[in-house]
Amino acid sequence: MEKPKNTNKYRDLEERTFRFAKRCRDFVKRLPRTVSNIEYGKQLIRSSGSQAANYIEANESLSKKDFVFRIKICRKEAKESSLWLNLCEIANEGDIGSEQSGLITEVGELRKIFSSILDKSR
Predict the structure, then answer these.
(1) How many CB atoms lie within 10 A of CB 74?
(2) Which among 23, 30, 35, 75 is least buried, having the fewest CB atoms inside 10 angstroms?
(3) DSSP state letters, 50-94
(4) Is the Cβ–Cβ distance between 17 and 110 less than 8 Å?
(5) How do residues 7-41 score in pLDDT, each as one tens digit?
């Protein structure tokens, strides 16, 4: 699959998904240690990392079909990350509450970006 001449936007999104995965990891470290948060946190770390990894793989795809498939996985994992973020229980609404809100906003934007990429790829 031929890539556009300006690949900066691809690298920018790779960096953005990477930063999102790191922010999720750091968020999970700060969560209150409840049984549910431990499980939700594990799932959040997996889905946010998978989204970043699949976007890298999409950019290295060998065919348009493979590219579209990987972007669909990115969108699916973003939806899943949103679920886990919303399920995490936070005791106080201080810094961790604002970080949770920021992550929910970011994953919503990433979902829209992946949906837009899919729409343009068809």
Answers:
(1) 28
(2) 35
(3) HHHHHHHHHHT-SSHHHHHHHHHHHHHHHHHHHHHHHH---S-SS
(4) yes
(5) 577 689 999 999 999 999 999 999 999 999 999 99
